[in-house]
Structure formats: structure tokens, C-alpha cells
Amino acid sequence: MISNASRFTRRATLGGLGAALALPYVKPSFAQSAPIKVGVLHSLSGTMAISETALRDTVLMMVEYANSKGGVLGRRLEAVVVDPASNWPLFAEKARELLAVHKVDVTFGCWTSVSRKSVLPVFEELNGLLFYPVQYEGEEESKNIFYTGAAPNQQAIPAVEYLMSKDGGEAKRIALLGTDYVYPRTTNRILRGFLKSKGIADADIMEEYTPFGHSDWQGIVARVKRFAGEGKKTAIVSTINGDANVPFYRELGNQGIKAEDIPCVAFSVGEEELAGIDTKPLVGHLAAWNYFMSTPGKPNEEFKALWQSYIKNPKRVTNDPMEATYTGFRMWMQAAEKAKSTAVAAVTPALIGQKLMAPCGYEEEMLANHHLSKPVLIGEIQADGQITTVWKTPDAVKAENWSTYIPENANRRR
Asked: Domains plus CATH for the chain?
């Protein structure tokens, strides 16, 4: 069954931010040709809405901004929004609706890997184009997907290396806590291989999974405390996704787990998720991303100004997947102008090699494996819910989407 989709076609009044996107101001005057349709495939209800709603808003911001500058190739952009409702099979149905019914030219969507894997065969079958903006486990490459979030070597592995370093507390035991689906399980498989290469024994690795939306963390957090009480410095690596993070962090505070005793580094918690949590007990705990709202520099100031001009709510923050959405959208615009077409066959090769000075403060490049080069940032949670960078790579890191710690994929690595 095909549900009604929402269309957003507001015209913007953001002319003063022309420098932010390095595009000259052009008074909107669209040709009579059909609009370019931009699919938005994010959960607006269910357990993942806490994270994905902001990504819907980011795409709508970019559609409005592009239209204020004359669109793309002189054509107006029109957003087509659907709600897969945190229902993984429904993602495939909604993807088919966007491609087969609405005939979208490009889609921005998904958060979880299970949702991405649900839609991947649909995009390949119907030759659609998807931009996926969230960190993931790697072990994938598709001609129809551009991955603008981090691969494991751009987030998970550097974060654990940091925890084991002197600056990160010299952890000798690691508790891997994740939501029970492909991203946490595959990422933790990679991390087990990495930890083994560093001499960490299986007995010094705790691994537990919980379902989406899990709320009772008392027993698991108590087990982490016991695990940490066995004589070795312990750290938590969290691949918990969605609204389960709220009770998880609350329970860390309830049981008095402080960062100086058992630091927790999160891969799926940013400023948006922290906005709904009392962060005072969490000060000093960590997040590993490729962008923080607190990043200094003109590119980020322009990104945040554009966001506030659109959303008009100073309480609404920016975060890493929003920045990855913004970067992917701008690269798609650049590629369409270069190709003089929005056709997938034309835009796809034009995307390779696209570069952008991103809000993270680094120049990012779209690589031949459809992944971005990205910096790695480790940040500490502050009392106001912001995250302050305490460590970063000197340069953008090229994505390795086939991990060296999964031997059966060795022949597929570039």
C-alpha cells in the first residue's frame, strides 16, 4: 500500500548566506521544466525518530536553500518526504515508493544499517541514488549508495585506540554495549579483532546487546561495574542506538559511573540525543564522531547560521549526521552542475573526486569507493550538552570500508 507523501516546496529568504555555500546569489527564476525531486527517507516516528527527525529537517533546509539560489541546473527542487517509522521492512517499501511512484532524482535517508540493507536492493534494482549519512560497520560498497558517514577506521578503531592510550586512560578491559542489529555486532567483531591484535584477551572483553528501545539498564550497568571491579582499568564502548540512549545514560548517572573511573565512548550519541538528557552526571564521558557543533572555524559558523536561519529555534543543535547530510547534499549539487544532469548515470561518476571544505574544518573528498575522507574527533561531554574536542587526527582519513580485521573480505579491499 502506498501512503501519501508530504511535499515541501517553501521558497527561502536566505540570500544573505550566499557565501556559506560558495554559490553566487541568483534571483529564483525557474524554467518551466519539471522540478527535481529529492527523496527524504528518515524515521519520523518510532524508536529512531529521536535521531532521524533532525536529518529530515536538514534535507529540507538544503532544498529550501538551493531553491533560494535558483535551484540546480535552473530547476526547482521539491522534497518528497516519507516516514518508514523505524520499521525496517517498511524502509524498502517506502524506498520503492520514492523511486517507482514519485520518480525522485536522489534520496537522502536511513540511519541504522538494517534500514540501509533493507533499501539497498531496491536502489540497485531501480537504479536510484541514495546518500547515507551515518557512521556504519563497513563491509559494503554499492554503485547506488554514497556513504557520507564514517567507516570503522574513521571512528570505532581510533576511539578504542584513544581509550587504550595514556591520554585516554590506558584501558585494559573493554565493555562493548550495543543495540542488537548488524552495525553494533559487526563493529564489535572488528573491534575484537583489533583488541586481539593489541594483546587484549577475550576474558577482558564484555559484550552485551539489547533490543531497540530498551529501557531497563540497571542490571547491565551493574554488571559493567562488577566487570570493572576486577582490577583492570575498564572503558565502555557504546553502539547503542536511538532512544535507548536516554535511559542508558540516566542509569550511568544513577549508579555513579564517572568518566574518570569508567569512561564511556559513544558512536551513536551526539548533541541531538544529549539535548534530552541531564548531562551533568555525564561530564567527561566521550563521543567519537567526525564533527561536533563546537568545532571552531568559518565553515561551521556558516553551517550553524544556515541551520538557525531555517529552523529558527536556538535550542535546536547541529550534529555529525546532519553535517554529513549537508556535505553530501552539497557534493550532489556540485556533481549535478558538473554533469549538467541529475541522471544517476551522469551524476555518479561526477561525484568521484568532489571536494568540500566541510563544517568539521577539514577538506573532505569523495573517494572511488563512494566513501568520504573524514577527520576523526574524540570529544568530551560537557554540562550544557555540548561536546568539546580533546583529540583529533591531523588530516582527513581515507575510508577503509573493507576491514583488515575481517579476513574473509581481504580480497575485496582496495
From this structure: 6-150+297-365 (3.40.50.2300), 153-294+377-412 (3.40.50.2300)
